[in-house]
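Need the bound structure for nickel (II) ion, inputs here:
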Amino acid sequence: MTLRQRLLRTIMLVAIGLCLGGAIAALSLTQEQNSNSSGSFVNAAGVGGSYSLLDQDGKTRTDQDFKTSYKLIYFGFTYCPTICPTELQKISRALQNLSPEQSAKIQPLFITIDPERDTVAVLKKYIELFDYNLMALTGSPEQIEAVKKAYKVYAAKVPQGEDYTMDHSSFIYFMSPDDQLLAIFRSDDTAKIMSEKISATLN
Ligand code: NI
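Answer from helper R.:
Posting the output first, comments after.
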């Protein structure tokens, strides 16, 4: 095998590994949904849990701070070139489709899966890109690991030249004020689908 062939083979194996990781993470969520619900409205026991993190102003935030709000929670990282910004924009459009009274009941949260690079200062700059009341949360690697586990989030570092990127599952969790999972929205769920389901739940 030439060097080029060996390189290609390595890249292919890594790609297969990443896809499998993502597929397994997606599968465990799907199975939970099937056993508990119809459609993508779910009452999945075991998704969610307590956490203590820092917001974009360095203020400690725990799950207890959001007990009066519905939540739309997205896990991602600020260096993500496409999927994370697309999903965060989608949340903005979904909220715009709701009445002001409805959207006031919802706290959108962006939780980083890349705490090494996504510091408080980085998150502060990042959420300025979005035109709604998005709150961004980071923490120590241990704190992020705990919240990822609670929400069954898959994320893994992937070397990229001298640097790295993150492979991660991409779900928007719609949680009730008392942290019951109401729905999971996937990348192919549109803002319209989201706002219809949210609206039906709030009324
Ligand atoms: Ni991403």
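Comments: The chain has a mean pLDDT of 85. Residues 76, 80, 83-84, 168 surround nickel (II) ion (CB under 6 Å).
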